[in-house]
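Look over this entry.
=====
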Amino acid sequence: MVTNLSNPQSPEIRRIAILSVHTSPLHQPGTGDSGGMNVYVAETAKRIAARGIEVEIFTRATSLTEPETTQLASGVLVRHIPAGPFEGLRKEDLPAQLCAVTAGVLRAEAAKNEGFYDLIHSHYWLSGQVGWIAQERWGVPLVHTMHTMARVKNLTLAKGDSPEPAIREIGEEQVVTAADRLVANTHAEAKELIELYHADPKRVRVVHPGVDLDKFIPGDKAEARKDLGIANDAIVLLFVGRIQPLKAPDILIKAAAEILKQSPQLRSRLLVAICGGPSGSGLDHPDSLVELAANLGVSDVVKFVPPTSRAELVQWFQAATLCAVPSYSESFGLVAIEAQACGIPVIAARVGGLPTAVRDGISGLLVDGHDEKDWAREILRVTIDENLQSKFSAGAIDHASHFGWEDTTEKLIAVYNEAVASSRARIGA
C-alpha cells in the first residue's frame, strides 16, 4: 500500500538541484530524447521557483555553443555539464558518460558553500545514478521520478522493437533502493515500482503530472484549421509525440487505411497528422512511417508535421477531431491531457498511466490492444457521431481541469518537505 502524502512540519527548503541528464528542459519536445519529461521538468521548476525555492537544473551539454549556464526563468538556472561527445549520443550510450556527468555535478557543488542544496530531485534512471552519488556526497535526500521503467517497457514491446538492456534494469533497482522518496505519476506506476522493483511502499508517493491550463485551452476550430491550411469539414486524426515503435504512430496509419476500406467516401475529408520527429529505435528507420503510408495506399491522407512550438501545438489540438495515443507503454501520457485541455476527445491504449489520463467513456475512449481494426472501429464511432464528440469534448475539458501544474507543484513540494524533514530527523539535525 502506498503511503499518502503526509504533512510534517515543513522545514525551510532554500534551494534544490534537479537532475535531467539525458535531455534538457530547454530542448524542443517531440524529437530525439525530448518529450513529456522535458515539459514536466521545465513547468514544475518554474513553479517551484515562484514559491521561493531556487532551482538549479543539471543536464548534459550537447553543443559547443551552449553556455555553461542558462536562465530558464526567474529563480531557475540550467547548468550544462560537458560529458562525452557534444552531439550524436543517444540516451542508450550515456551510461558510459555517467562518471563525467557526476564529476561535473560534484564540481559545481564544490564551488559553493557547504549545504548549498537542500535536496536532489532526479528524473529518469540515468539521472538517478548521478543523484545517488550526489546524495551521499552532499548529505541531502534524494527524490526520484522514473518516468519510464525498463521492466514495464519490456513487458509490452512493440513488434520488432528492442528490449531495454539488463544494465538499465540493474541501474533502476539501485536508484529505487537509494532514493529517500519515489514519485510515481499514477497509482498504476506506484504498483509497478513496488511489484517489479520491490520499492518500499512507505517511500512511494503518487503525484500526477499536469498541463498548462492557461496555454492549452479550447479554441475556435474553424480559425485553427484556417491558420493550419486544413479544410473546415476535415476529419483530423492527430498523433503528437516522438516517432518510435513504443509510441505506435503506425497503428493510427493502419487504422486510417482500415477506415478507408470500410468508408472510402471519407478519403476526401480524412487527414492523419503525425506531429513529431524520430526518436530512440525510430532513428534506425526514420522513413518507416512514410513507407508504411505508401504501402497501404494512404499517403494522400497522411501529413507529417515536424515538432512544433507549444503555441502551434495548441492550434493542432484545437483543429483536431480527436487525438490518438496508441502507445505500448506510457508512464502517464501528457499529450492526452494537453489535448483534452483543448477540448479534444482522446482515443488511447489501455496501458500504463493512460487510464488515469483519459476517462473512458467520458473524455474519450480506451482501446484494449493494438489491432488496427479495433482502432478503426473506435475512431469511426467518434468521428461519425457529432453528439458523442460534443459529449467527449465537454468531458475532456472537465477532466483536464483537475491536472494543472500548480497542483502538481504543490504536491511535489510536500514530498520535498517530507523527505527533508525525515532526513534531518534521521541525522539529528
